Structures are given as C-alpha cells and as structure tokens.
C-alpha cells in the first residue's frame, strides 16, 4: 500500500500550499501599505503580514527540501524573525510619534493627549535647560 | 525559563543527531521530526518534578499560550486582509493607555512584542515609569476603550503573568 504513494508529490503539494498562502499574506500586506490612510496603520499592516508570510514560506521550504539541516535552519530563522520584527516596528512607531508624524484625523487620541503634551513639555523643558546652561 | 531553554537545546540537538547520523526507523520528514522532538521534550518534562517543580506545572500553560497567540495571529491577519481587500474602511483607530500589571523589563518586552505582532495593534511607547503601555489599535468596537483594554489584559497579560510568576 505504502509503496504506491508518491511521497515527493505529496510533499510538493503541501509545501506549495504553505508557500502560496504565505505569498498571499505578503501581497495583501503590501496592498495595505499602499492603501491605508496614515503611517501608523500602514506600520501595523506591513509588520504582521510580512512576519506571518515569511514564516509560512520558510515552513513550506523546509517541508520541500526534507532534510534535518534545512529544518533546523528554518526553525532558527523563524524564531529570530518573530523576536526581532516587533522590536523594529515598535522602534519605528515610537520614532514617528517623537517626530510628530500626524495621525489619521479619525483617530481617537483621547488617552494619548496627556502623553503627547507631557512628552513635548519635558522635551522643551530640557531644551530650555540646555540653553540656559552655557 | 532556564530549564526550558536547556531542554529545548537538548531536544533539538538530539533529534537532529538522531535523524542525521542515527538509523531512524521512520522516513525523515517534517512531521516525524516534530513528533520525535516533542517526544523528547515530553520525556524531559516528565523528569522535572524531581528538580524543578514549577516547570512541571507551567509547560502546559506555556503551550496553551503559544497556541492562543498563533490563533490570534492568524485570525487577526485575516481580519486586516479583509479590510484591505474591500473598498470601504471599517477602521476606527484609537490610541489606548494600557495600565501594566507586569513589572520586570523582560515581561514588558515580551508583552509589547506580542501586542505588536497581533495585527490590529501596535505598541507605541512605554511611559517613563513603566506603568503604562500606549497601544495603537485599528478596531474599536462601539467606541469602548475599556473593552479593548480588558481583552488585552485578560488575553495576554494574565497568561504571561501566570508563566513568569
């Protein structure tokens, strides 16, 4: 029974499904990058789509090559991507807030106003201190 | 945590060596690799009550946490994908101030990373006294910020605290 099954074909089909789903996620995230109205929404669209897409594509690749070496490498790459990509997104978003990149007008900023005001006040305060020192 | 990494390394290396240099009774493929790896992890886990009692309790919770996270990742990605592909936005972006119950730097880092990876939410900044995490969220149901905060706190923070406590 088992001798008649074409394992290579099955493997190829499974890995193709993984890779196609991953590429679809990446494509949709890229369309979102072009379509969405402001910087922060674009950031949240692109980070997740790219991370999940990359994970799926690499899993498909690991299944296709079917070697212990490849699977180990794929697992390492996926885990490192999942650790690093949110950190990058977080830092870019924070820099954008500090540089006063505007939010979409419909954004509800009620709870954030305090932060913006306080942060900008402290920064101005530090500037004044620096100017007074010399 | 330390025990987990040691076990992870042992299981990875031994399953790798088994398939690469040993004489496997199963044909190599991804499914058998994962099965052998998890079998080694389970055997190691069964030995833990002898020297690390809390790890014995925590591992099932950790697995549940990872499963929950992956489910959220896929479901929310599909939600954003639907919004991208249909012509009208259903977005209601909001910045909420999430009061943190977790205290250490490690927990805050993990929580912020998980919140960023879950689509629809992006952690922007931590207040300087490490008490508040500012989260940018795409969807707000019925203009109810409290509900969103509760779902984040109940979903991720509580599980994370159970793991690290």
TrEMBL record, chain A:
Annotated keywords: Membrane, Transmembrane, Transmembrane helix
Record's keyword annotation contains Transmembrane: yes
Residue spans crossing the bilayer: 13-34, 46-65, 71-92
Record carries keyword Transmembrane helix: yes
Highest taxon of source: Bacteria
InterPro entries: PhaG_MnhG_YufB
PANTHER family in the record: ANTIPORTER SUBUNIT MNHG2-RELATED (PTHR34703:SF1)
Protein name according to UniProt: Monovalent cation/H(+) antiporter subunit G
Organism annotation: Pontibacter aquaedesilientis
UniProtKB/TrEMBL annotation, chain B:
Pfam families, A to Z: MNHE
UniProt entry tagged with the keyword Transmembrane: yes
Compartment(s) of residence: Cell membrane
Residues spanning the membrane: 29-51
Keywords: Cell membrane, Membrane, Transmembrane, Transmembrane helix
InterPro entries per record: Cation_antiport_E
Keyword ATP-binding tagged: no
Topology within the bilayer: Multi-pass membrane protein
Domain of life: Bacteria
Family: Belongs to the CPA3 antiporters (TC 2.A.63) subunit E family.
Protein name per its UniProtKB record: Na+/H+ antiporter subunit E
